[in-house]
Design brief:
about 45 residues; alpha+beta; two-stranded antiparallel sheet; 1 helix; about 15% helix; about 30% strand
Length: about 45
């Protein structure tokens, strides 16, 4: 997974990219979680 960051209207956001040609799935975590929480989901959904 690769972490990417961007800023929009003063907000700093980051996301993890599984870097594959599969369809896009967006999983949003809650305040106390982190994006890596969904790493097992990404592996399970991989072709």
């Amino acid at each position: 997974m690769e972490r990417h960051r961007f800023e929009h209207d003063g907000l700093n956001l980051s996301y993890l990219d599984a870097v594959c040609d599969s369809p896009v799935v967006i999983a949003l975590h809650s305040h106390w979680m982190e994006g890596l929480t969904f790493a097992p989901l990404a592996v399970a959904l991989a072709p």
